[in-house]
Amino acid sequence: MKKVTTSTLMQLKQKGEKIAALTAYDASFAKMFDEQLIDVMLIGDSLGMVLRGDDDTLSVSIDDIAYHTTCVRKGTSRAFVIADMPFMSYATTELAYTNAAKLMASGASMVKVEGGEWLISTISGLVERGIPVCGHLGLTPQSVHVFGGFKVQGREQEQAQKIIDAAIKLEKAGVQLLVLECVPSAIAKRISETLTIPVIGIGAGVDTDGQILVMHDMFGISANYMPKFSKNYLADCNDMRSAVSTYIDDVKTKRFPGPEHSFE
Ligand SMILES: Nc1nc(=O)c2c([nH]1)NC[C@@H]1CN(c3ccc(C(=O)N[C@@H](CCC(=O)O)C(=O)O)cc3)CN21
Ligand SMILES: CC(C)C(=O)C(=O)O
Ligand SMILES: [Mg+2]
Fold this sequence. Notes:
The protein is α/β, with parallel strands linked by helices. It has one domain (about 5-260): Phosphoenolpyruvate-binding domains (TIM Barrel, Alpha-Beta Barrel), CATH 3.20.20.60. It contains 11 helices and 8 strands. Strands 1-2-3-4-5-6-7-8 form an 8-stranded parallel beta barrel, surrounded by 7 helices. Helix 4 (about 60-75) packs parallel to helix 5 (about 95-105), helix 5 packs across helix 6 (about 120-130) and helix 8 packs parallel to helix 9. The longest helix has 17 residues, at about 155-175. The chain is globular. The chain starts with 5 loop residues before the first helix and ends in a 12-residue tail after the last helix. The relative contact order is 0.14. The structure holds 5,10-methenyl-6,7,8-trihydrofolic acid, 3-methyl-2-oxobutanoic acid and magnesium ion. Magnesium ion binds near residues 44, 45, 46, 84 and 141.
């Protein structure tokens, strides 16, 4: 089967076809998601919360992500695999190079970093050295203590404009994909229309170029809590494979997310 690449994702956006993504942390689930034709799998630093049971993502290490990336890579034959750079692993450009190299060597095809303006030179340096980068704006969970909680971002005009400007700058710096988390749907729509690269939303409304969920939320089994933007796809089918394929189908047909999973 033909592998999903950055060009495939770009083509999906150009054709107006939605990108379906899930987090994955091990080979068995990765294989199941891959067989159901998920487009993208992310080894998220959310593993600190859903696997380890922490209240935030801050204590996840580069070795944690590298280990789970190895696991996911072994279960994947088609999907595009992205690995999160954990908290402080890209605090300087030099650190970013060393740590991104570890994740690529573990089987990632792209790394994801949280932040805007301050990351521009790090991102262009990574891309110039051959490491594809995914941006992440809006609610960036590694800044939870700066935000004072997991709160929707971009509700005030000035803050919204900052996110829009950052998205444009990230694209210019060379990111080939952007995750937008917990921002008002109208802002996510505007950014998705403005950028050439695909925008994948989580709690960002139905008008982004794709959707991502934490797999445990999609199965309704998360240890801590269930964010409003998630949906339990096991609730009315009782079969994991059907839950995954219904989620993918709902993303492709824009049945997910509904207004009840989105913010104004
Ligand atoms: N299980 C899980 N799901 C996630 O989506 C997720 C993680 N863990 N860990 C890493 C980050 C943290 N995320 C979170 C966590 C909580 C909220 C939350 O409680 N949001 C409120 C909105 C609050 C507001 O209105 O400002 C909500 O009601 O959903 C949002 C994102 C997203 N990511
Ligand atoms: C929620 C997604 C986008 C993420 O960054 C994670 O799972 O860590
Ligand atoms: Mg993350």
